[in-house]
Fold each of these.
Amino acid sequence: MESDTSQTRPRTSGEAPVPLPLPETSGSLTAEERAAKRTQAMIIGGAVGFLVLLVVAIVLMAKFPAATEVVRDIAIVFVAVMTFLIGLAMLLLIFQIQVLIQVLRDEIQPLLHTVNDTASTVRGTTEFVSHNVVSPIIKLAGFTSGVGRVMSDVVGVVKASRPRNVTRGDIGSKGGKQDGQAGE
């Protein structure tokens, strides 16, 4: 008999029970899903830990005002040092941007001018080939096509102007000779 954990589809007359697929359990999570859950748990844990530390710090500052003044002075010095370091980083960044602008001006602009000159040369070559090679070939092809059409029309006119051969049936009905002339 089937276990209590499996589910079956309702039976109709004469069918055997067919088990339905069970919903996915947490054991079948992919590595990506496990990493996402782990990251989410770490974020929640960090937020809770920060709130606990904040509450503890507020309570300690209220109980020990002298220690609070020392911590405040240390925090002021720390903020001053960080401001100085950020200022140095900004100066370094401004210097690097200036170097980048100089590189762009000195090396990239001549390269762009060379590319523009090459494009102009290609454009001129294309126009030259178009006017001196392609156009004459197109004109020649058009001329030969026209000559071919005229020749086919002339051949058609010549064929149409030829007298038709008289058949034997025509000779017998008019009473003429075999060569197509009337009898004497």
Note: The mean pLDDT is 82.
Amino acid sequence: MIRIVLYLLIISNANYYAQTNDSLDNDKFTYRSTILSSIIPGSGQINNNKIKPVNLHNRLWWKLPIIYGGLATSSYLIKFNHQEFIKIKDERLSRQNGNSAVNYISYSSDQLKLIQNEYRRLRDFSIISLLGVYLLQIIDANVEAQLFLFDIGDNLSFKFKHLNQNNLFSSYLIPQFSLNFKL
């Protein structure tokens, strides 16, 4: 599944062109940030530090502890919830085989079944959170690279105004959108 998501992310990244003068280099850089971030989490953010604007005094390394903290926390929760799930499952199966209660003496077999399902649900949520953190850091590296490479020069303009349309029978406003390029 991760391969499919990465493949779709790479394909969708390669089809968008914002500028014509240096779009090939921009696309290669965005592609590289995405691939680096998918191979080693956080490396796309470090790669984006090469092209950050000069007036941006913020370092981009501050995202690394957040990324690795999220991945480590999710991994720990997966391991913990799976271990508890296995312990309770073994205790419940041991009781069904006729053995006496060893670990969870104060719980009945029905209560152990509910607790086992709860740890399974928590383990599954932890796996989803791990995948979420992983995908979010890939998306962050991609978007950050595209935003740093986006042209914000004076040659682009954007106007939004309304057009007043008067007829004999009615009067209404029409939104008008214009995008101007200076070449």
Note: Helices lie at 2-14, 23-39, 43-48, 63-96, 109-149.
